[in-house]
Each structure stands twice: as C-alpha cells, then as structure tokens.
Amino acid sequence: MRSDNRFGDLEVTDPKAMRALAHPVRLAILERLQRYGPATATQLSPYVGATPSVASWHLRHLEGFGLVRDAVDGGTDRRARRWEAVARGFRFEVPEDEDGRAAARLLAGEMFARTADLPLRWLSEAESSLEQEWVARAVANNTRVVVSADELAALKDAMEELLAPYVTRDAAERPPDSRGVRVLLYALPEAADHVDDDSGEVV
User: Fold this and answer.
1) Domain ranges within the chain, ordered by starting residue
2) Which of 41, 84, 139, 199 has the most CB atoms in a 10 Å sphere around its CB?
C-alpha cells in the first residue's frame, strides 16, 4: 500500500482485474461485502441481481484476482461458504499503456453508472424522512477550478487527508448520534481545447 493511500484501499493495478471488476454484479457483490461484512452467495443473491449459483461464480472470479476471500469466521461447511472483501474499499490508477487505459475506462464507466442516480434517489427516497439538521447539512457542490496537474493532485491529497480519520476509525469511536453519509467526489479535467466560460479563451 502506498503512503498516500490513507483509506487503506486495495490498489488494483492489473488491467485484467480492472476488467473483471467492470461488471455490475461483481461491483454489487464487492460493495455489499464491504458495507455489510461477510456473506454467502445465497445471502448476497437478492441484493446483486443474480441467482446464488451465478453469484457464487462471480465470487470465485473475484477471488482469483485477490478481491475477496474466505471469511475469517467462515467455518468448514463448504456448502455455506462465507466470503468477505479483502479491504474496505479499492482504488485504481489509469495505466500508461493503451490496454490498461481501456480497462480503467471500462471500470470507471461501470462505477459512474452505479452512482449516477444516487443524488436523485437520495432526494426521492431519503430526504423527506430526515431530520431538519441532517437535511440542512447535506451538500450538493458543483464547482469549477482552474489548476495545474500538480495542484489537482494536491487537492485530491488534501481532501483524502480530511476524510481519512472518518473513513478508517473503528465503529466504537463513532459518536452515538452518527449515521452513514455517502460522499461522492469527482474531479474531471476538461479537454485541452475547452473554451473557458469565464474569459472566452481556450485553456
């Protein structure tokens, strides 16, 4: 794990592993295990859009790339094999070769698709049931900055440093009135020939 990986994420570097993850059922399985802990294929089935046998096949595929493993408390009954995620999250960087970039693009696209409707779902399913203090503290921010690549890297590092203590702390250390909050963060550099809306100049 690199020193700048403050969340303790599993770092996916193999393009084959990226392609393996770029599947809606596999991403759903991994997300479910990371959020709720160990489970069998049968327990995962209703939440990932697959039969137990298909879920089991996908779990073995993920295992082959080191993304899931037998749960520590899995027991010895192979008919009820319990699985767990290897890490609380994963991250990947875009490789320099074209095959690697294509694999990363495929995975990024699937991840974007999984979260694209989250803000609208929050508004329609959760917002109306929240206490006012939580509604007032929800954040929807769409900000444009003009920065260098090094400055963007520094921004990313600073934001991860701010979030890391909340991501990695043990459940026993959380305040009694705490609850889960989904933080979505996109930093999407514009194309080099993008027209600057503020000045009319090409940046």
Assistant:
1) 1-116, 121-203
2) 41
